[in-house]
Here is the input.
Amino acid sequence: MAVGEEPVNRFAQRPPVRPAEVPAAASESRAPVQGLAEAAPAAQPAFVTDPGEARGLAATAQTLAELEAIVGAYDGCGLKLRATQLCFADGNPQAQIMLIGEAPGAEEDRQGKPFVGKSGQLLDRMLAAIGLDRTKVYIANTVPWRPPGNRTPTPEELATCLPFLHRQVELVAPKVILTLGGPAMQTVFNTTIGILKMRGRWSELTVGAHGVEAMPTLHPAYLLRNPAAKQQAWRDMLSLRMKLDALGIG
Ligand code: URA
Here is the structure.
């Protein structure tokens, strides 16, 4: 009998981790100013997982390579079952600028790297317009596996993967975060406000245990569908350039 939208591999599930067994994540040691608080799980998740398990695993990673291996071995997110491979990050792990998108698409799923399809090509042009390229930024997504049919990740999927994103931000420790599109903004800024209201505004966020200046902008895929919105995106990129200049970031 079909009981959910996603198939559930019960053999891959581990017994639930009791909260007392889960080491507190670095993100919990400080009250977040705002942002990256973990989203409430969906009322009736199709793939039952315990974000506490991801939190405990993420906290053990001391390097990005360790975190990538941990995420790659993690079976608690249903997206992994339908994805070709993990799409963890691209760019420079030492960068002071981190870009966070929504989720890998078809080309990203094939290559295992974020933003390598059409929207990635536009993103590269946007970066180049303000003197940046992938040697100067680090790029990740809110979820590291492609959602089937490129749908938006569910709140449950986002909540499950969020501890990994927290830790990724802590380990990269960027000075500036740029979120791309509404879902990434809502996840990172922990808000339900629409992207068109919040884009272009800077906030100081505490992401995990890491303090950072962050600004949402429009998603390149949205810009491809709505070329008129490139005007707003250009303003955001100029604002990013000014912020980087003020912080002395090349
Ligand atoms: N869109 C995203 O949000 N992320 C990618 O990696 C590619 C497209």
The first helix runs from residue 51 to 60.
